Amino acid sequence: xxxxxxxxxxxxxxxxxxxxxxxxxxxxxxxxxxxxxxxxxxxxxxxxxxxxxxxxxxxxxxxxxxxxxxxxxxxxxxxxxxxxxxxxxxxxxxxxxxxxxxxxxxxxxxxxxxxxxxxxxxxxxxxxxxxxxxxxxxxxxxxxxxxxxxxxxxxxxxxxxxxxxxxxxxxxxxxxxxxxxxxxxxxxxxxxxxxxxxxxxxxxxxxxxxxxxxxxxxxxxxxxxxxxxxxxxxxxxxxxxxxxxxxxxxxxxxxxxxxxxxxxxxxxxxxxxxxxxxxxxxxxxxxxxxxxxxxxxxxxxxxxxxxxxxxxxxxxxxxxxxxxxxxxxxxxxxxxxxxxxxxxxxxxxxxxxxxxxxxxxxxxxxxxxxxxxxxx
Length: 376
Ligand code: GMT
Prior knowledge:
By secondary structure, this protein is of the alpha/beta class. The chain contains 15 helices and 13 strands.
């Protein structure tokens, strides 16, 4: 099939999922056209993968650049030129409405462009709840030829926040477990924890929803009981504030901010525990990536996190904001070798249930049914 993929090209989970899905489809022989404003960070060269940049003009009349319109025109252009069989848009805003508009423009010329919308989380749970977006998101979800959500929790949230009548299919996010290292590298461990301390790690885009401060609070409590270091990977609006707080605390020398990394798994695999303290998380791809490296997870029990991290198997969960419980959970996982080995094995086994091998056929089947049923 010739498939267009529209996504945010940044470090966020939706862009990562879209990119890895496209790469995997290309590997299976599909021809994939990424259409976005920048080269997706995880995109690699492949003979079946093409990238089309959406360039917004900086004409002085525009205080706000009309990205959605330029994206629509690009979709029409690519669809006509390469003969796309369908478009898969990741993140509803504004991708689903752009795809719908492109579909209508092509229909006026007697051409067909089915589109699938995948909801990733903040498009529904945060941004989507802004009433000013509601009519457009509801409309473009209703008009999508198929809608998927990355967890059961996100599906429930979608029906709660939007007056949606159509069906939403859950297709979870995935990892290619065999592509992740799952044995700690002694040199990396020595580098980050020279005294043999336990290494706790957090990866995110440091948005307020991640409650990054709770990671630090949980770590400070843990450090009262066992020697530990904390690695903070990623960057975003909260980083400066939280980094300043850390610098003022007496555990400053035990916390390192590493910034954005294109291959976080090279550090993750050498860590002992992953911490994710989010207010809400539709899925928690970062946690799944840690589990694919054999790293157990301590996280909040909100949104789709309980679907990803099985309590008592791949890690432990506790209520949002309860840093004492999170520190207790971290201590429980790390305090003795036998328990730790059990959680490590559990994390890896749980990650395997989300292996690409199990998820890719579900997207392919969905594409096939959409292409077979959608008319102009
Ligand atoms: O977490 C973010 O703020 C970024 C956002 C995105 O669109 O990249 O992540 C969302 O989608 C990911 C991929 O499906 C999920 O793993 C994240 O849980 C979800 N984030 C939230 O729900 C906060």
